[in-house]
Backbone:
C-alpha cells in the first residue's frame, strides 16, 4: 500500500487547497485521514482556512474568463486526457478508495471506472451542447436558443462516493465552460487530493491556467458555509444527507443561486408473486449489502406479497449467510466495515426502534469483534420484518438494514406502501406480469427519480440522468440532458427585415 500511496503522491503533509496546477501552503487545521479498515492514519492534510478559500475562489473567478473562451470541443479534449490519466491510475486509485472509504476492491475500482466513463461521456457531450431553433411569429425574423457557460460551480461531495460524484459534476462542468471548486467530505480527503493531482498533470501539460479545477478541504465555518453563501458561485451541486441539503437549499435560495441536490434515499423494491425470485434475491442481496448499505441507492425496503413472504425471507437469509465480511482489500470479501463506530451505533439504535415499534429482526445486525473486527466498525447485515406504517421504515439509516414489508393483495396496495416515505431516489419492481410492471413505471406508480423493472435499485449507469424526487432533492446529474443545469440558457431573436413588427399584434406607432 505504501508504494500505491507514493505513486499517487499521497505522502508527507498534504495541502488541502489547490487550484488545479498548483497547491497553496494551506493554513487551516491539521486533518488526519484514518482507514475504516483498521483505524490507522493513512496521511495528514493541512486544511484550507478562510484566507485560502478566498485565494482559491479568486483564481476560479479569473479562470472563468479564460475557460469560457476555449471552444467546447477543445475543453472536451482536455477532459478526454483526464479520463486517460484516470485509466492509467485506475488500480491505485481504486485501492485508495477502498483504504479510505472501506468499500471492497471491486467497488473501489468500479467507482474509478465510473469517473472514466463520465469523462468519455463528457467528451462526446462537448460537441452536443445543442439549443433549439424556433419559428418566429414575425416575418423575416429568426429565433433560437443557445447555452452559455455559467461560472464557477461549487461541488460538495459525500464520503460514500468520494470520487465518482465529483466526476459526475466536474466532467460536465468542464465541458460546459465552468471552473469547479470541489469541497470533498473531510472523511475522505485523500482520494480527492489524488484525483486532483492526476487531473492537475493533464492541465499543466495543456497549459491550462490555474483556477479551472480547484479543491478546498476544510470545516464548515472556514469553507462549507463560505462556499454556499458565495455570490460568485452561481451553482452549488451538493450531495449528502437531507439535513445538509435542506440547509444548502435555503442558503443558496436566499441569494437566488441555483442548486443541484442529491440527498438521501430510502429505496424500495416490490416483489410480486409473479416475480422471477432467483433474480430478485440476487439483486436484493447486492443492493442491500453492497458497500455495507452505504450507497444512496442501497435497497432498504422490500414490499413483498404475503403469499411468498415466508419462503422468500428464508432464501434471503441463506444469501446473507454467505456474505463474507472482513478486510475489503482481501479477495473474496463482499462486505467491509462501516465508515465509523457512530454508524454502527446508529444501526443498533434503528434496530431497537424497530423492535419498539413492533418489528422483528430476522437475521444479523451484530457488531463483530475479534481480530480485525476490533479495529473498525464491522457488522453483519440485517434483515427485519416490518410494516409500512412504522416510522423507522420512513428513515434512511445509512447501514445495511433491510426491512421486509408484507402486502396483502394488489399491486396498487404495494405501490401505496412503496411511495409512503419522504425520500424518492431509486425504486424497482420484480414481476413478469406486464400489467404490474407497466403500472409501476407509469405516472400511477413509483414516485422516484429512478424506476427499474427486474433489476435492483443500486448501481445506476452514467448515461441516464441521476437523481431523485421529494426529500432526495430533485437534482439530476451525469447523463441525458443533465448538462443543461451547468449552463445558462439564452433565447435570441434576430430581425433581418426592414420593418419593426411587434409580437402579439401590438401596434405602437410613433
Ligand atoms: P453529509 O450530509 O454529512 O455530508 C455531505 C457533504 O456536505 C460533506 O462534504 C460535508 O462536509 C458537507 N456539508 C455538511 N454541512 C455543510 C454546510 N453547512 N455547508 C457546506 N457543506 C456542508 O453526508 P455524508 O454522511 O457524507 O453522506 C451520506 C449521505 O449522502 C446519505 O444520506 C446518502 O444517501 C447521501 N448521498 C446521496 C447521493 C445521491 O446522489 N442522492 C449520493 C451519495 C450520497
Residues:
Amino acid at each position: 500500500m505504501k508504494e500505491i500511496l507514493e505513486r499517487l503522491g499521497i505522502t508527507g503533509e498534504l495541502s488541502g487547497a489547490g487550484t488545479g496546477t498548483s497547491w497553496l501552503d494551506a493554513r487551516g487545521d491539521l486533518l488526519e485521514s484514518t482507514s475504516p479498515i483498521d483505524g490507522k492514519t493513512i496521511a495528514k492534510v493541512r486544511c484550507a482556512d478562510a484566507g485560502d478559500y478566498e485565494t482559491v475562489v479568486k483564481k476560479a473567478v479569473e479562470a472563468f474568463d479564460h475557460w469560457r473562451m476555449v471552444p467546447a470541443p477543445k475543453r472536451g479534449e482536455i477532459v478526454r486526457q483526464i479520463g486517460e490519466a484516470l485509466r492509467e491510475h485506475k488500480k491505485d486509485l481504486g485501492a485508495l478508495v477502498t483504504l479510505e472509504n472501506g468499500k471492497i476492491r471491486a467497488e473501489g475500482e468500479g467507482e474509478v471506472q465510473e469517473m472514466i466513463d463520465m469523462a468519455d461521456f463528457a467528451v462526446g457531450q462537448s460537441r452536443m451542447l445543442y439549443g433549439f431553433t424556433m419559428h418566429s411569429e414575425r416575418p423575416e425574423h429568426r429565433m433560437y436558443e443557445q447555452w452559455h457557460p455559467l461560472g464557477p460551480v461549487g461541488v460538495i461531495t459525500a464520503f460514500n462516493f468520494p470520487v465518482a460524484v465529483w466526476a459526475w459534476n466536474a466532467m460536465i462542468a468542464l465541458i460546459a465552460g465552468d471552473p469547479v471548486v470541489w469541497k470533498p467530505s473531510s472523511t475522505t480527503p485523500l482520494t480527492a487530493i489524488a484525483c486532483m493531482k492526476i487531473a492537475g498533470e493533464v492541465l499543466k501539460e495543456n497549459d491550462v491556467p490555474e483556477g479551472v479545477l480547484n479543491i478546498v478541504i476544510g470545516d464548515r465555518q472556514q469553507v462549507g458555509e463560505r462556499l454556499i453563501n458565495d455570490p460568485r458561485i452561481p451553482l452549488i451541486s451538493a450531495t449528502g444527507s437531507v439535513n445538509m441539503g435542506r440547509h444548502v437549499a435555503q442558503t443558496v435560495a436566499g441569494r437566488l443561486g441555483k442548486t443541484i441536490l442529491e440527498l438521501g434515499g430510502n429505496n424500495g423494491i416490490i416483489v410480486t408473486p409473479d416475480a422471477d425470485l432467483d433474480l430478485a434475491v440476487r439483486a436484493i442481496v447486492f443492493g442491500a449489502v453492497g458497500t455495507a448499505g452505504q450507497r444512496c441507492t442501497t435497497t432498504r425496503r422490500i414490499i413483498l406479497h404475503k403469499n411468498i413472504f415466508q419462503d422468500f425471507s428464508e432464501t434471503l437469509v441463506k444469501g446473507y449467510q454467505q456474505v463474507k465480511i472482513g478486510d475489503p482489500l482481501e479477495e473474496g470479501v463482499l462486505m467491509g466495515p462501516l465508515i465509523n463506530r457512530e454508524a454502527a451505533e446508529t444501526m443498533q439504535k434503528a434496530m431497537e426502534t424497530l423492535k419498539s415499534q413492533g418489528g422483528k429482526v430476522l437475521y444479523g445486525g451484530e457488531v463483530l469483534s475479534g481480530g480485525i473486527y476490533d479495529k473498525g466498525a464491522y457488522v453483519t447485515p440485517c434483515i427485519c420484518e416490518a410494516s409500512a406504517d412504522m416510522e423507522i421504515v420512513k428513515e434512511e439509516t445509512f447501514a445495511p438494514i433491510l426491512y421486509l414489508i408484507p402486502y396483502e393483495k394488489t399491486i396498487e396496495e404495494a405501490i401505496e406502501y412503496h411511495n409512503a416515505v419522504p425520500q424518492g431516489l431509486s425504486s424497482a419492481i420484480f414481476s413478469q406480469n406486464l400489467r404490474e410492471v407497466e403500472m409501476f413505471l407509469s405516472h400511477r406508480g413509483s414516485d422516484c427519480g429512478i424506476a427499474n423493472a427486474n433489476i435492483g435499485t443500486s448501481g445506476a449507469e452514467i448515461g441516464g440522468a441521476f437523481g431523485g424526487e421529494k426529500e432526495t432533492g430533485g437534482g439530476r446529474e451525469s447523463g441525458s440532458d443533465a448538462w443543461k443545469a451547468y449552463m445558462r440558457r439564452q433565447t435570441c431573436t434576430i430581425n433581418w427585415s426592414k420593418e419593426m413588427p411587434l409580437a402579439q399584434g401590438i401596434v405602437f406607432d410613433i
